[in-house]
């Protein structure tokens, strides 16, 4: 007798998550768009868009943003692709260490890199002191190209990760086939493997373009002091204005920026789904391509690049933080740590920002992991329309520029609803915005974990009579603890150092560590901002060392061999 089994509906947790997304993502973004087209009489009007386009800064901000986006993307694509090929496919010495250098900008906030760049390539920077090339420092420290270079360095890891993943996934059979046809190592790579990673590089380029529109820290630290306007800083200047007209114009500009940022992300998804290049089969070990006599030159070039764009700036940041005064020659006799002491004793905003960031980042990570648990499980087990919609909506705050998300939250909740005076608190508003902003990271963390877990393991617990809660507590969570720890640590780090959202939502009572650093630098406290930036860099580097040293792991299904835990070996055999 044949019978049909109905497809299980999404569990209750998915529906609660959907309610959160509807209330704190869809509704604020919808209200943002509505305010942007609302006329004085309550009807539809495009007057706010017209006023924004006629603004004196519109043309300059648009030109600068397009120029920075294109040039920084070219830098990111060129260096990210070359770095991935060199570290994944060649016999480059010390490939593991070079991988860490290419990944380094991921873990350091872009605004800290901007401050470090000023101490390195600015007029009083260490590069000028060492070389005396003031013309180059003026070009890099004050000009638009400084923003281009720092933005490009920040986005190199995006392209590097995507191309590296594509190279690892390429089957070694392609190279073997080309070599069997008589091609040499490099010719077989360029003809058989490189075309397969072109879509990954193109996808990284599109994400880099979207990131250039999104970034606020780099234009704020390098652009505003030099009178260089970009779209993100232009939106910030409009949004902090007073009155409904300023809010309406800010909503119009935010809507245009959101649409501009979504287009390359949507194009990247379309490219990934419809590319005519397909990677067939599983990746495997491949013979490394010989660099030959170019090896020494490649090492020197890599060392020079990373030294100029990473090591030099952050060493300069540390040296500036222990200098007695800005621009004074540093020696062993005048080294001082008074600027570090001043952060705790003389600048209350720093301690307030540190406390607020800590009390925000830890609950944010916990809330994101709890909210995204059912979505990650459902996305790995079944992809019905409700789960797909929740995942798509959850991606919006992470994909859209942070300024757009922050402004949507501000325009929605700055007047508290009856019975909801809680949102008058800057802390609560920031917390909700952070959870929405990093929701997509939580989904990806749990989806990766649930995908590795064989469904038979969960079903065995149910057959033994355990309920869903007991199965999760006693069977699933012990296997996922490293995913939760490493993923939660990343969310804590990203939310702790966040600046874009907090620049609009923090206020005096919701001061964050990012805003404290921004206020120090813009207020002329250069030595104190260098000290705080150095501490943030050390903290982020420590988190990166933990995450990289103990990567996500868990149960992996190894076919007929059984279930294997990456830490403790085979736990159960199916033979």
Structure description:
It is built from 25 helices and 3 strands. The chain has 575 residues and is mainly alpha-helical. It has 2 domains: 268 residues, MetI-like (MetI-like fold, Orthogonal Bundle); 282 residues, MetI-like (MetI-like fold), CATH 1.10.3720. The chain has a 3-stranded antiparallel β-sheet, with no helix packed on it. α5 crosses α8. The longest helix is centred in the middle third of the chain and has 34 residues. The radius of gyration is 25 Å and the shape is globular.
Shape: globular
CATH classification, class level of the largest domain: Mainly Alpha
What name does the CATH topology of the largest domain carry?
Answer: MetI-like fold
Which percent range fits the helix content?
over 70%
Determine Rg (CA atoms, Å). 25 Å
Cα(first) to Cα(last) distance is 32 Å
- Order of strands, widest sheet: 1-2-3
The CATH architecture of the largest domain can be given as Orthogonal Bundle
Number of helices: 25
């Amino acid at each position: 007798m044949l019978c049909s089994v109905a497809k299980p509906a999404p569990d209750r947790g998915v529906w609660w998550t959907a309610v959160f997304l509807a209330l704190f993502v869809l509704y604020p973004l919808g209200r943002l768009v509505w305010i942007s087209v609302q006329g004085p009489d309550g009807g539809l009007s495009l007057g706010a868009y017209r006023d924004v386009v006629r603004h004196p800064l519109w043309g300059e901000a648009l030109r600068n943003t397009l120029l920075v986006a294109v040039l920084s993307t070219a830098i990111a694509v060129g260096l990210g692709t070359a770095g991935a090929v060199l570290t994944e496919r060649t016999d480059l010495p010390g490939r593991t260490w070079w991988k860490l250098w290419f990944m380094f900008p991921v873990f350091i906030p872009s605004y800290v890199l901007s401050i470090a760049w000023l101490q390195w390539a600015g007029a009083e920077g260490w590069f000028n002191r060492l070389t005396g090339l003031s013309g180059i420092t003026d070009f890099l420290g004050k000009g638009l190209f400084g923003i281009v270079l720092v933005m490009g360095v920040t986005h190199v890891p995006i392209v590097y990760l995507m191309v590296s993943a594509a190279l690892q996934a390429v089957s070694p059979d392609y190279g073997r086939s080309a070599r069997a046809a008589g091609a040499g190592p490099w010719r077989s790579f360029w003809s058989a493997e490189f075309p397969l990673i072109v879509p990954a590089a193109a996808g990284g380029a599109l994400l880099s373009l979207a990131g250039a529109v999104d970034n606020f820290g780099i234009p704020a630290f390098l652009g505003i002091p030099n009178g260089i306007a970009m779209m993100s800083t232009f939106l910030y200047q409009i949004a902090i204005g007073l009155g409904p007209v300023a809010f309406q114009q800010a909503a119009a500009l935010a809507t245009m920026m959101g649409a501009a940022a979504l287009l390359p992300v949507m194009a990247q998804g379309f490219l990934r789904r419809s590319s005519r290049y397909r990677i067939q089969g599983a990746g495997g070990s491949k013979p490394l391509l010989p660099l030959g006599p170019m090896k020494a030159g490649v090492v020197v070039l890599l060392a020079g690049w990373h030294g100029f764009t990473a090591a030099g700036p952050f060493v300069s940041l540390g040296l500036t933080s222990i200098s007695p005064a800005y621009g004074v020659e540093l020696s062993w006799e005048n080294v001082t740590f008074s600027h570090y002491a001043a952060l705790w004793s003389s600048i209350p905003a720093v301690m307030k920002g540190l406390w607020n960031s800590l009390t925000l980042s830890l609950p944010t990570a916990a809330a994101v992991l709890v909210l995204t648990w059912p979505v990650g499980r459902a996305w790995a087990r079944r992809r019905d329309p409700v789960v797909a919609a929740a995942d798509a909506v959850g991606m919006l705050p992470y994909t859209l520029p942070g300024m757009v998300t922050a402004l949507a939250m501000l325009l929605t909740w700055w007047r508290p609803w009856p019975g909801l005076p809680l949102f008058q608190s800057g802390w609560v508003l920031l917390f909700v915005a952070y959870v929405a902003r990093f929701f997509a990271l939580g989904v990806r963390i749990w989806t990766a974990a649930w995908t590795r877990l064989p469904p038979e393991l969960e079903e065995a617990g149910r057959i033994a009579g355990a309920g869903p809660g007991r199965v999760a507590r006693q069977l699933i969570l012990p296997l996922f603890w490293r995913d939760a720890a490493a993923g939660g640590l990343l969310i804590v780090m990203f939310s702790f150092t966040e600046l874009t959202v907090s620049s609009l939502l923090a206020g005096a009572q919701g001061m964050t560590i990012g805003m404290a650093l921004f206020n120090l630098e813009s207020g002329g406290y250069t030595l104190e901002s260098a000290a705080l930036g150095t501490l943030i860099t050390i903290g982020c580097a420590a988190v990166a060392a933990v995450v990289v040293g103990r990567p996500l792991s868990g149960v992996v299904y190894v076919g007929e061999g059984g279930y294997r835990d990456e830490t403790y070996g085979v736990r159960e055999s199916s033979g």
